[in-house]
């Protein structure tokens, strides 16, 4: 976020977008945003009080990004001027030497498309799912993340009225239709209905509801899907996997498990297993 937007000096304009472009350039080169290790409030303070960040701001080693030339670095510096009027406009930016040296469409076709995997290979790769993953996670038009039956078509088995109304970043549990149960063999165990309760990025408590098909799903596969959907921090994959597996293994006697998260908690928070600050909870529901 541009400094003038943080200070609320004036409304958001295209000069703020130029600042964002400079930050994006750093992210693409280094893999992380400047000050990414700090909590939001400290990032705000560093942005307002320090000199503008550059490519080497987040470097952990000397000359870590020496492979990037002066032209690229100069473009970042031009975009990350604290005074909005000193930043280039979009038209001026296109005239920057960095963009003038950009390869044309023909080069990209020859270099990227020709040597890349074929369309058939990409389709096959995209259709593959991790072993043990349910494959039932998809996003509805309403913005909800939904676990649906593997046998459901695009129209879905249950109507929208059957699902609970949930925030955009939660999962709604969709039951299979009656015909699905008739088609399944009598020996198949009923899926386990679970709820993962944890705080989101806004520190709000969310219930993420899903099913676990014993013999088909795996704890690691479910956890990976949650991370892929942006509902869980990747650092918590292992602890969620372990505790979900623990609950499934002891589902006859154990109904709830509360555990600390590897992602921790904000600097202004105190860990609390009751309020689920720095903790999460998985429970089996009826």
From TrEMBL:
Presence of keyword Transferase: yes
Reactions listed under catalytic activity: L-threonyl-[protein] + ATP = O-phospho-L-threonyl-[protein] + ADP + H(+); L-seryl-[protein] + ATP = O-phospho-L-seryl-[protein] + ADP + H(+)
Pfam family, one: Pkinase
Family label: Belongs to the protein kinase superfamily. STE Ser/Thr protein kinase family. STE20 subfamily.
SUPFAM superfamilies: Protein kinase-like (PK-like)
Domain Protein kinase: 1-99
UniProt name for this protein: non-specific serine/threonine protein kinase
UniProt keyword list: ATP-binding, Kinase, Nucleotide-binding, Serine/threonine-protein kinase, Transferase
UniProt KW NAD keyword: no
MF (Gene Ontology): ATP binding; protein serine/threonine kinase activator activity; protein serine/threonine kinase activity
GO BP: protein export from nucleus
EC annotation from Swiss-Prot or TrEMBL: 2.7.11.1
Region (Disordered): 123-192
GO cellular component, one term: serine/threonine protein kinase complex
């Amino acid at each position: 976020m541009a400094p003038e937007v943080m200070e609320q000096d004036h409304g958001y304009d295209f000069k703020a977008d130029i600042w964002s472009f400079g930050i994006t350039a750093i992210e693409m080169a280094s893999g992380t945003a400047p000050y990414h290790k700090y909590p939001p409030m400290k990032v705000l303070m560093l942005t307002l009080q320090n000199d503008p960040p550059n490519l080497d701001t987040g470097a952990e080693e000397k000359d870590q990004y020496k492979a990037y030339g002066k032209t690229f670095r100069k473009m970042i510096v031009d975009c990350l001027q604290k005074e909005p009027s000193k930043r280039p406009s979009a038209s001026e930016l296109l005239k920057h030497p960095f963009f003038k040296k950009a390869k044309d469409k023909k080069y990209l076709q020859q270099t990227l498309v020709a040597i890349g995997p074929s369309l058939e290979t990409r389709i096959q790769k995209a259709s593959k799912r991790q072993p043990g993953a349910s494959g039932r996670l998809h996003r509805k038009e309403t913005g909800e993340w939904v676990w649906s039956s593997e046998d459901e078509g695009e129209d879905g088995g249950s109507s929208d009225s059957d699902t609970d109304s949930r925030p955009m970043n939660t999962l709604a549990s969709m039951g299979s239709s009656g015909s699905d149960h008739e088609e399944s063999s009598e020996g198949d165990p009923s899926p386990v209905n679970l709820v993962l309760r944890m705080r989101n990025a806004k520190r709000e408590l969310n219930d993420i509801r899903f099913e676990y098909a014993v013999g088909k799903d795996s704890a690691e596969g479910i956890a990976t899907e949650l991370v892929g959907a942006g509902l869980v921090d990747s650092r918590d994959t292992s602890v969620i996997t372990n505790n979900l597996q623990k609950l499934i293994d002891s589902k006859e006697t154990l109904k709830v498990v509360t555990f600390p998260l590897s992602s921790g908690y904000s600097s202004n928070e105190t860990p609390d297993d009751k309020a689920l600050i720095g903790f999460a909870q998985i429970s089996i529901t009826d």
